[in-house]
């Protein structure tokens, strides 16, 4: 009688093992499918995030003090290497010169247009073999369209047609802004005036 009962229980045990195996396999497959779907969804969201949430276009006008134009200069040399001075940009591609500026910002390339804000900061020339500078400045806007500030920093290789620097923060309408600003030289007059066209693409916008 005992042996007969054991023979009857064996098929039932085998069936239960097969059932449990298939159940676990189904759960594992569903979990893998959900994880794969979640990863795919994340990739789709990441691709969508590269679209700018806000764009701006404006011009920055810089008039460098040359020893005779203090009445309308918007920038001045505040530091220079031993072989240069603080009035005229030095030799060797202006290497070592540090310039502080407070430049008007306009919506078109006309220096005499009504400013929509001011760019305040500094740039320094940091190579001897080619014209290149490093910028750190804040654009302060106070117009009917925009109020607040945007902070910029990055290298500016002047011989390139376009140069990208980082947007590293902001206030007001640009609170905690992040993005990229593309600089394009729009005009140069000797070493006393230059105009830069700036295109800003923000990828983090809180407002």
From TrEMBL:
Keywords: Apoplast, Secreted, Signal. Pfam families: Dirigent. The keyword Manganese does not apply. Residues 1-29 form the signal peptide. GO terms for biological process: phenylpropanoid biosynthetic process. One of its GO terms (cellular component) is apoplast. It is found in: Secreted, Extracellular space, Apoplast. InterPro entries: Allene_oxi_cyc_Dirigent (IPR044859), Dirigent (IPR004265). Its main location: secreted. Belongs to the plant dirigent protein family. Dirigent proteins impart stereoselectivity on the phenoxy radical-coupling reaction, yielding optically active lignans from two molecules of coniferyl alcohol in the biosynthesis of lignans, flavonolignans, and alkaloids and thus plays a central role in plant secondary metabolism. Homodimer. This is Dirigent protein.
